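If you are new to this repository, start here. Below is one unmodified record pulled from the training split, so you can see the exact layout before writing a loader.
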Amino acid sequence: MELPIYYPLGLGALLFGLGLWGALTRKNAVRILMFIEIMLNGVNLNLITFSRYYWQTSPETAARAPILTLFVMTVAAAEASVGLAIILSMVRNRDVVEVDKATLLKG
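And here is the target side for that same chain:
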């Protein structure tokens, strides 16, 4: 018995929605980065789901989505490291982690 496609797609949409809600409502910069990572994981889950159900026609196209997912995970890791470096700089210079209180980029 095969799992219906709307189960993993629904879970991916739920992860993306939860990440979007958290990124828009939180003030702590580290939490915002964590919710952005949740959003990217939801996108990766949907990408792998579509690859599994629709794009498994030939060996050439079967490897596209996992390779793209690895690329998205690499970009997410780079985004997290740059974001954490910026947050660390904000904490050292202004002693603040909340995004709405950070005036580091104002002229």
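Two things worth knowing about this chain: Residues 12 and 33 are 18 Å apart (CA to CA). The helical segments are 6-25, 29-53, 59-62, 64-94.
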